Amino acid sequence: MTDTTPVVVRAYRTPFGKEDGVFADVRSEDLSAPLIDEILADTGLSGEDVDDLMWGCAQQRGEQGNNMARIVALLSDLGESVPGTTINRWCASSAQAVASAADAVRAGQRDAIIAGGVENMSRTKMGANTQMHPRMNEDYNLAALQMGMTAEEVAERYDVSREDQDDYAFRSHQRASEATTSGRFDDEIVPIETDEGTVSEDQGIRHDVSREKMGELPTVFKADGSVTPGNASQITDGAAALLVTSKAFAEDHGLDVLAEIGNNSVAGVEPEVMGIGPIPAVRDLLERSGRDIEDYDLVELNEAFASQCLYCQRELGIDDENYNVNGGAIALGHPLGATGARLPVTLIHEMIKRDAERGIATECVGFGQGMAIEFSR
């Protein structure tokens, strides 16, 4: 019987660029195609071997509209034979792409899918020209659903101090800086050529940040709040991609398996505290898998804001030594449609380095959602 266990055989991402920085003149399609071409070149596969391209993008308008996945397929070495679907679950858009690819493979419907996502937040500004349904303003205070305000609500409601948030953010930059200088990200990053030269490292990491300076930053969303530019994720440009196949396909094509993809879970929470979404998502994942959080060697939880990272860590009981070990979005940045794939890319490469058996990638999602996916080796 054919083994349809979904596995990851390649996992790459671009460097992440700061808003209006190194990728400000690079379209999202041109951040995406190099990752796909690298996967094909590295595996010796062609478009004839790939069944579908599933590509996440949170802001599907302007340049990022028109079913970007299909356009990316046509612009990449995949070519005309590979269809494409663009997926939106906001911050978990590319996580949903990975989960959908794994589910399709597990069901025997597909053999090989490239799944990932992109967001160029420099070229498609967050929230611009968004038309919200009028009933949302009747049922909710839309100002309170702005992500920064939800982070403030989490901090206030669950007693997460400014000091603890700044400590966490400082640690994120320290860990990301060390990971960069020691080459821990080298295996996962595909350099991107721009008109100004080659970009090979993440641009947002504050390598020389001090804890004192972190504490001096002003708040952004509330005058008497605790969320600052230092303890929040950065607006960023980037892409990430994984080649998901059946175990049988990998064996037939002589491809090394990086990790197996296990269960995935989604959950809904109050939109006003969207940052706590990973808590019910991970708990549901643990229940589905019959495991405890201690059974996982590494957890990558998107650092949308330090306040929600700390509360989720506390509630889920995640050991600090296993949690965002190379830093996260506070240092690296959070290109919305790419983050859900960036998390497993980083997770899987770190699992390989540590010879770890199990890991979880999870994130909160705008307007009150959470998602989690488990991986094993």
UniProtKB/TrEMBL annotation:
<keyword id="KW-0276">Fatty acid metabolism</keyword>
<dbReference type="Pfam" id="PF00108">
    <property type="entry name" value="Thiolase_N"/>
</dbReference>
<dbReference type="InterPro" id="IPR050215">
    <property type="entry name" value="Thiolase-like_sf_Thiolase"/>
</dbReference>
<keyword id="KW-0414">Isoprene biosynthesis</keyword>
<dbReference type="Pfam" id="PF02803">
    <property type="entry name" value="Thiolase_C"/>
</dbReference>
<feature type="domain" description="Thiolase C-terminal">
    <location>
        <begin position="256"/>
        <end position="374"/>
    </location>
</feature>
<dbReference type="GO" id="GO:0006631">
    <property type="term" value="P:fatty acid metabolic process"/>
</dbReference>
<dbReference type="InterPro" id="IPR020613">
    <property type="entry name" value="Thiolase_CS"/>
</dbReference>
<protein>
    <submittedName>
        <fullName>Thiolase family protein</fullName>
    </submittedName>
</protein>
<keyword id="KW-0576">Peroxisome</keyword>
<keyword id="KW-0012">Acyltransferase</keyword>
<dbReference type="GO" id="GO:0016746">
    <property type="term" value="F:acyltransferase activity"/>
</dbReference>
<dbReference type="GO" id="GO:0008299">
    <property type="term" value="P:isoprenoid biosynthetic process"/>
</dbReference>
<keyword id="KW-0808">Transferase</keyword>
<dbReference type="GO" id="GO:0005737">
    <property type="term" value="C:cytoplasm"/>
</dbReference>
<keyword id="KW-0809">Transit peptide</keyword>
<dbReference type="InterPro" id="IPR002155">
    <property type="entry name" value="Thiolase"/>
</dbReference>
<keyword id="KW-0443">Lipid metabolism</keyword>
<comment type="similarity">
    <text>Belongs to the thiolase-like superfamily. Thiolase family.</text>
</comment>
<feature type="domain" description="Thiolase N-terminal">
    <location>
        <begin position="7"/>
        <end position="247"/>
    </location>
</feature>
<dbReference type="InterPro" id="IPR020617">
    <property type="entry name" value="Thiolase_C"/>
</dbReference>
<dbReference type="InterPro" id="IPR020616">
    <property type="entry name" value="Thiolase_N"/>
</dbReference>
<dbReference type="InterPro" id="IPR016039">
    <property type="entry name" value="Thiolase-like"/>
</dbReference>
